[in-house]
Design a protein that fits this description.
Number of strands: 8
Helix content: 40-55%
Shape: globular
CATH architecture of the largest domain: Alpha-Beta Complex
Oligomer: single chain
Structural class: alpha+beta
Largest sheet: 6 strands, antiparallel
CATH class of the largest domain: Alpha Beta
Number of domains: 2
Length: about 325
C-alpha cells in the first residue's frame, strides 16, 4: 500500500520496501518513509503532533520523524476509506544504545522548551484519575466474580490476588497525592515530550527514529519509571548496575528534584503490570493468549516478594539522598 500512496499522493517513487515495527515503510533516495494509519484523529491533535515534531527537530534532534505534506499540501491522505500520514526521516541509521539515559535526558530537555500550550496529547496531572478509573473498573469486575464458581485457574488466581494489588495501587495513589500536596515542582518537573511506554526497545531496531504518534506530553518521570519497570522485569536479578547507570546518565543532563523522584516512585509502585495482565486475559479471544497470560500471572505472583524488595531498595540503588530531600519511605515494604 505504501508504494501506491507515495506514488499517487506524494509523487515519490519507492526504491526499497521495509517495516518499522508494525508500520509499512520504504526507502527512497536515502530517506526513510513510514506509513502511519491515523484512524479518526482530530485535526487539532494532528497539528499539535506536527508542531512538536518540528520543534524537536529544529532544536537539534535529527532523528525525529516529520509529517510529510501531500502534493495538495495536506498532512494526511485517504486511501481505501482509511486515513494515513506519511513520516519522513532524512537520517537513517541503527540506534547506538550507549548512554541511553543521557539521550533520553536531552530529548526531555528539548521537549520542555515547546513554546505553546499542549492540550490534546497532554497527560499532565492525570495519573491519579486514570489509575483510580482502572482500579475501580477492576474492583467492580472482581466483585461480580466473588459469588461465582471460578471457571479457570486464572479466575481463581485473580480472585485471590486482587486485594493485595488493590492495596498496592491505593498506596501508589496516596504517595502521588502526598507528593503533589507536600512538595514543590522545580524546572525539571515542567511538562515535556514523553512516550506512552518508554523501554530500551523504543529507539532500538534497524532504524533510529522518533515517531510523534508515540508521544504524550507529561512529566519526565513517566519515561524514567516505565524504562525502569521494563528493565527490572526483563531480568529481576541483574538490573542493579544498569538502573544505577541509567539515572546517572540522565542526571548528567538535568538533575532530578525530590518531586520528580517521588513521582517516579509512585509510578513504579502502581501495579500496572498486574492490571494489564488481567485486562488482557479477559479481553483475549484466543486460548493460546489466555494460557500465556495465565503463566505470566503465576510468575508475577511467585515473584511478588522480589518486586517488594526492588521497590524497597530503589532509592538506595539509585543513590537518592532521601534524608536531604525529605523523601518519605513506604514503611510496609
Amino acid at each position: 500500500m505504501i508504494q501506491n500512496i507515495l506514488s499517487s499522493k506524494y509523487g515519490i517513487d519507492v526504491e526499497e520496501e521495509t517495516r518499522i515495527g508494525h508500520y509499512e515503510a520504504c526507502i527512497s533516495q536515502g530517506r526513510l518513509y513510514t506509513l502511519v494509519p491515523v484512524g479518526s484523529i482530530e485535526e487539532e491533535e494532528l497539528e499539535e503532533r506536527d508542531q512538536i515534531a518540528a520543534h524537536i527537530y529544529q532544536t537539534g534532534d535529527r532523528h525525529v520523524s516529520m509529517l510529510l505534506e501531500t502534493k495538495e499540501g495536506t498532512k494526511q491522505t485517504e486511501m481505501n476509506e482509511q486515513l494515513f500520514c506519511v513520516l519522513i526521516n532524512d537520517r537513517i541509521r541503527p540506534f547506538q544504545s550507549r548512554q541511553l539515559g543521557r539521550k533520553l535526558g536531552k530529548f526531555h530537555f528539548r521537549g520542555r522548551t515547546v513554546q505553546f500550550g499542549v492540550q490534546k496529547i497532554s497527560r499532565m496531572g492525570q495519573w491519579k484519575s486514570m489509575w483510580e478509573q482502572r482500579m475501580d473498573q477492576m474492583e467492580g469486575f472482581w466483585n461480580s466474580m466473588l459469588y461465582k464458581q471460578p471457571e479457570s485457574d486464572f479466575d481463581q488466581l485473580f480472585l485471590e490476588s486482587f486485594p493485595y494489588y488493590m492495596g498496592i495501587a491505593e498506596n501508589a495513589i496516596q504517595y502521588l497525592v502526598d507528593t503533589e500536596l507536600d512538595d514543590d515542582p522545580s524546572a525539571v518537573d515542567s511538562g515535556t515530550i514523553c512516550y506512552n511506554r518508554f523501554t530500551k526497545d523504543t529507539w532500538a531496531g534497524e532504524y533510529y527514529i522518533k515517531n510523534p504518534f508515540d508521544w504524550v506530553f507529561d512529566h519526565c518521570g513517566r519515561d524514567l519509571a516505565e524504562w525502569t519497570r521494563d528493565r527490572y522485569f526483563r531480568n529481576i536479578k541483574t538490573f542493579h548496575r544498569e538502573v544505577k547507570t541509567f539515572y546517572e546518565e540522565y542526571q548528567s543532563v538535568m538533575p532530578l528534584s525530590s518531586f520528580a523522584w517521588r513521582l517516579i516512585y509512585a509510578r513504579l509502585l502502581f501495579p500496572i503490570h498486574y492490571v494489564e495482565c488481567v485486562e488482557n486475559y479477559y479481553s483475549a479471544t484466543h486460548e493460546a493468549d489466555q494460557l500465556f497470560l495465565e503463566e505470566k500471572l503465576k510468575k508475577m505472583l511467585n515473584q511478588s516478594r522480589d518486586l517488594e524488595i526492588f521497590l524497597k531498595e530503589f532509592y538506595q540503588n539509585t543513590e537518592v539522598p532521601v534524608k536531604t530531600m525529605k523523601i518519605p519511605i513506604v514503611s510496609w515494604l
